[in-house]
């Protein structure tokens, strides 16, 4: 007690309590806690303490513990955060790069599944921005070293782990080849055909190494290169080494009943890869569910005799925003906008001196007006007011959701009515793609802040979610989507949330055309859509009963992708479908759903469905909307089951 009473007290702030305890315990001779620690973020925090207080003796031990500790899906995001913290310390920048490369290597093996990626995003929503660098490396990184350990001769033909390099799925394949009566070990580099495209091409060089496990210098390497595509997706050495010289005791290659193969891959170019599954809104079957906007009644105010000069075409108003300016006749502007009709009136202008600074901030007596309401893009200001001045060419050529949305927001703020319906139609007709989906989604968020356009905003967001459900059922597309929208992480998470969230009611829409040409008992399937991290399809078919044709439909659920072998389940609790605006609740068959994950929606006589006025089939097409509620999902993989120990 006397020693404690006499000791100086130094508060250590800005670090985790446990790391402080372990580091200073180590300095006083208690090394056990550090020797047992396997928490990488905690160990990195210890390195930060050592750097802050210029301590050297624990550093080597801490780095050794980091090297021995394992990365897994539970700690991956925290390790990525630790990498960024370590990166800020110059002396540990090399260790930060090594640790990040370990994260990438682990992700290469475990992210080749859109379900795994969705789960990862779901669990790490608040920190997902830390993983953007990781996804960018998976998509764009062109160099990697991959490894495969084969435990015994019987495993030689089994599929090894897959690795993501340049957004393609690579693996090492080994074979026992008999040539001229002699058995050889053949080693090959393989690329799996990506989902959604058949015209891909990849130019790559490779270096295959059979590792000598007792003497690295005795390892054998062979080099080569290939243009991989859908017809040639493997390349390698047929006679790498005689079988008997490998799988033999004391060969050095076969140690602890296993061999180790290492392949270094350099990808020079990839062509023909798609960033989505290529499904258009028309194929998906999206149809608008919003009600027609009620047109506002025109309430043109009677012109005041004192404001006759507002109709003078010779008076020009200049509108500015950023570095652009647009000039148009004052008469045209006041005709289109109630806001400007008031601000340019004689009554308002003659009381200029009594106006407060806020009212004067964006306007001058020389009739120059700065457009700041709704924080618009300058391009939107230019196009809109050029249109009001009679130049409609720029508006007709506009293909940007954000610019069109900004124009509507300007119209709402400045009480402009005439262009609204035309711009709204343009937004409805503007096609979605994987490259503009986030732009459209964020534009809808901005429109939703204006009560007048909330129905339109909801409809655009619905289109985006429906498009994502059909086009992101591929890990390659999903990695590209996340990496390409690194500046819009919050919106990316919101879109993905609709794919993996099983607490909401799902809406699946589709349209089947050419119904009359359906073959009997052969189902026509809708594009698959993601909901609750499973794939769902609507299927429609024709059949005959008592010499009379009828049409029937059902919905099915499927777990697909590179998932590990395991049981999965998904309970469909509630279901209803909508045909031509008529909603029908449907009871769920409890026994059938457990056996087949397939549920019947309806069956209708063709004669009833084809009625001219109230039949469900119009113009030889049937449009459907199915609302489902899913509960008790299980078996969706959080990783592909490959540990860091297996690949290091």
Category from helices, strands and their pairing: alpha+beta
Number of strands: 20
What average pLDDT do the residues reach? 84
Radius of gyration: 33 Å
Major β-sheet profile: 5 strands, antiparallel
Shape: globular
Tell me the helix content. Answer: 25-40%
- N-to-C terminal Cα separation, in Å? 50 Å
How many helical stretches? Answer: 26
Plain-language structure description:
With about 650 residues, the chain is α+β, with helices and mostly antiparallel strands. It has 26 helices and 20 strands. The strands form five sheets. Strands 13, 14, 15, 16 and 19 form a five-stranded antiparallel β-sheet that branches. A four-stranded antiparallel β-sheet has the order 1-8-5-6, with no helix packed on it. A hairpin with a 2-residue loop joins β15 and β16 (about 550-560). α16 packs across α18 (about 400-415) and α18 (about 400-415) runs antiparallel to α19. The longest helix has 18 residues, at about 95-110. The protein is globular. It starts with a helix and ends with a helix.
Features:
alpha+beta, globular, 4-stranded antiparallel β-sheet
List the helices and strands and how they pair.
Elements (H helix, E strand, L loop, with lengths): L1 H5 L10 H11 L4 H5 L3 H13 L6 H10 L7 H12 L5 H18 L3 H10 L8 H9 L2 E8 L11 E4 L2 E12 L2 E11 L8 E10 L9 E10 L4 E9 H4 L12 E13 L9 H4 L31 E6 L2 E6 H7 L1 H6 L2 H5 L6 H4 L7 E3 L7 H11 L4 H5 L3 H13 L6 H10 L7 H11 L6 H18 L3 H10 L4 H12 L4 E9 L10 E2 L3 E3 L2 E12 L2 E11 L10 E11 L2 E5 L3 H7 L1 E8 H4 L11 E14 L9 H4 L1
Brief overview, please?
By secondary structure, this protein is an alpha+beta fold. Helix content is 35%, strand content 26%.
């Amino acid at each position: 007690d006397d020693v404690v009473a006499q000791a100086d007290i130094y508060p250590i702030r800005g670090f985790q309590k446990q790391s402080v305890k372990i580091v200073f315990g180590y300095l006083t001779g208690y090394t056990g806690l550090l020797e047992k620690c396997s928490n990488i973020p905690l160990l990195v925090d210890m390195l930060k303490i050592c750097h802050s207080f210029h301590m050297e003796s624990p550093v080597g031990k801490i780095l050794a513990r980091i090297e021995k500790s394992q990365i897994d899906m539970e700690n991956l995001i925290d390790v990525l955060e630790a990498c960024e913290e370590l990166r800020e310390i110059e002396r540990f920048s090399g260790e930060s790069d090594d640790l990040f490369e370990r994260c990438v290597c682990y992700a290469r093996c475990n992210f080749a599944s859109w379900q795994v990626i969705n789960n990862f995003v779901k669990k790490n929503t608040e920190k997902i921005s830390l993983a953007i660098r990781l996804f960018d490396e998976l998509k764009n990184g062109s160099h990697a070293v991959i490894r495969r350990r084969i435990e015994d001769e019987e495993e030689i033909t089994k599929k090894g782990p897959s690795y993501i390099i340049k957004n393609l799925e690579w693996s090492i394949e080994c074979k026992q080849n008999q040539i001229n009566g002699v058995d050889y070990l053949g080693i090959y580099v393989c690329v799996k055909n990506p989902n959604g495209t058949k015209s891909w091409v990849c130019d790559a060089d490779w270096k295959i190494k059979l590792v000598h496990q007792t003497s690295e210098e005795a390892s054998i390497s062979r080099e080569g290169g290939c243009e991989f595509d859908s017809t040639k997706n493997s390349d390698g050495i047929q006679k790498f080494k005689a079988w008997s010289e490998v799988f033999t005791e004391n060969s050095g290659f076969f140690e602890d009943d296993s061999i180790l193969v290492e392949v270094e891959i350099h990808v020079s170019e990839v062509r023909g890869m798609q960033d989505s599954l290529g499904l258009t809104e028309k194929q998906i079957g999206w149809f608008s569910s919003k009600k027609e906007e009620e047109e506002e009644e025109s309430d043109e105010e009677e012109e005041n005799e004192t404001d006759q000069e507002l109709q003078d075409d010779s008076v020009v108003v200049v509108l500015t925003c950023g570095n652009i300016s647009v000039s148009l006749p004052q008469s045209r502007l006041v005709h289109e906008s109630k806001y400007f009709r008031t601000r340019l009136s004689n009554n308002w202008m003659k009381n200029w001196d009594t106006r407060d600074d806020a009212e004067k901030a964006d306007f001058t007596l020389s009739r120059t007006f700065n457009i700041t309401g709704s924080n618009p893009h300058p391009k939107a200001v230019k196009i809109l007011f050029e249109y009001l001045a009679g130049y409609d060419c720029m508006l007709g050529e506009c293909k940007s959701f954000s610019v069109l949305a900004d124009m509507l927001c300007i119209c709402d703020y400045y009480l402009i009515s005439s262009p609204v319906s035309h711009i709204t139609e343009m937004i409805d007709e503007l096609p979605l793609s994987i490259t503009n989906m986030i732009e459209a989604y964020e534009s809808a968020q901005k429109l939703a802040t204006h009560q007048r356009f909330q129905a339109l905003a909801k409809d655009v967001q619905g289109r985006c979610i429906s498009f994502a459900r059909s086009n992101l059922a591929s890990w390659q597309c999903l990695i590209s989507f996340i990496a390409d929208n690194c500046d819009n992480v919050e919106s990316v998470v919101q879109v993905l949330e609709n794919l993996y969230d099983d607490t909401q009611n799902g809406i699946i829409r589709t349209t089947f055309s050419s119904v009359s040409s359906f073959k009997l008992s052969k189902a026509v399937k809708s594009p698959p859509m993601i909901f609750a991290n499973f794939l769902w399809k609507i299927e429609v078919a024709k059949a005959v009963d008592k010499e009379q044709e009828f049409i029937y439909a059902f919905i099915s659920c499927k777990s697909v992708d590179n998932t590990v072998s395991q049981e999965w389940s998904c309970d469909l609790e509630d279901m209803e479908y909508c045909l031509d605006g008529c909603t029908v609740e449907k009871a769920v068959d409890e026994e059938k759903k457990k056996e087949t994950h397939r549920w019947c929606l309806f069956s209708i006589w063709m004669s009833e469905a084809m009625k001219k006025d109230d039949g469900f089939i119009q113009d030889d097409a049937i449009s459907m909307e199915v609302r489902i509620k899913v509960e008790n999902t299980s078996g969706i993989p959080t990783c592909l089951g490959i540990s860091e120990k297996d690949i290091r």
